[in-house]
Amino acid sequence: MLTKSEILSEVEESELDQKLFEELLEEHDGIRKAFNRKDYEKTLLKTGKFCETTYQLLQEIKDGEHSQQPDRTELTEKLENLPSKDYPESIRILIPRVANSMYDFRNKRGGAHISPINPQYIDAHLIVQGSRWIIAELLRVYGDGDIEVETLRSQVQHLATRSLPLVEEFEDGDVMVLAETESCKEDILMILYHFYPDRVTNNELDDIISGESRKNVLTSLNQLYKNKNYVHRNDSGAKLTQKGREHVEKTYGEETKEEQVEGAQ
Questions:
Q1: Distance CA 25, CA 97 (A)
Q2: Rounded distance, CA 62 to CA 92, Å?
Q3: pLDDT digit string (tens) for 25-65?
Q4: Directed axis angle between helix 95-108 and helix 120-142, to 10°?
């Protein structure tokens, strides 16, 4: 997966304001981390700054300068009227509308709720996906092509892929499985889900699942590959199949946990 500096390098020759784009990456990271900690209220609160930075970027593309708080309604209308031959549809229409809807969720659903079902989780999930989509689309449109197409495609797919807070990465490079598991196979599934769509090598799995022998890790991985079709393997490592991803989301997703709690009542 590309580092932050590599992502910035990919768009440094484009018309994107580098400082603003870097701020956008940081705001997205804050949204993602809050969601992974299950702090859905904070996820929604962080949306305001992300959307504000998005509008500043769009204003920079249009005018070559930006204000501290662009009028989003006025800017959205002006962007829609830009000539299609000079500006991508993403800049004129799609990104402004996605950011607008994200901001509305942040403002109109961030307070108290009368309904017994608190919508903060589903709202926060939409926010995470929206912020990922905006960054992925900017990277797709303004990437300069210096990075191999497959690497860039993988990065865009990674940004646009749903995630669950099952694994955490630390600044020293350590990786830890957060969820309580009962088998090596479950650990493997969570790790592969976290790094999807990248492949994970046997050595990397060994390093992360330190409490298991290499033989047990390889045996569990082979079972997931041959018996369940949850994993695809080749010389580059292991990667979850769509069936594997669906299994993890069905088993460990927040919606599943809520259903289990309701069923126990």
A1: 19
A2: 9
A3: 889 888 887 876 677 888 888 899 999 999 999 999 999 99
A4: 160
Q: 141, 143, 128: which is closest to 58 by C-alpha?
A: 141
Identify the bridge partners of residue 237 per DSSP, sorted by sequence position. 234
Residues 2 and 151 sit within 8 Å (Cβ to Cβ): yes
pTM: 0.61
Reference 243, options 227, 230, 256; nearest CA is 230
Residue linked to tokens 């990277």: 139
CB 65 within 8 A of CB 59: yes
CA 151 and chain centroid, separation: 16
Residue for token pair 């904070």:
42
Q: Which pLDDT tens digit goes with each residue over 169-206?
A: 776 767 777 777 788 999 999 888 888 777 889 998 98
Q: Say if CB 203 and CB 188 are below 8 A apart.
A: no
CB 40 within 8 A of CB 176: no
- The answer to whether the beta carbons of residues 54 and 24 sit under 8 Å apart is yes
Instruction: Please state, in angstroms and as integers, the Cα–Cα distance from residue 79 to each residue in 61, 88, 115, following that order.
Output: 10, 10, 37
CA distance 243 to 158: 17
Q: 194 near 188, Cβ under 8 Å?
A: no
- Is the bond preceding residue 116 a cis peptide, omega within 30 degrees? no
Q: Which residue has the tokens 């700054």?
A: 49
CA dihedral 143, 146, 150, 155 (to 10 degrees): -50
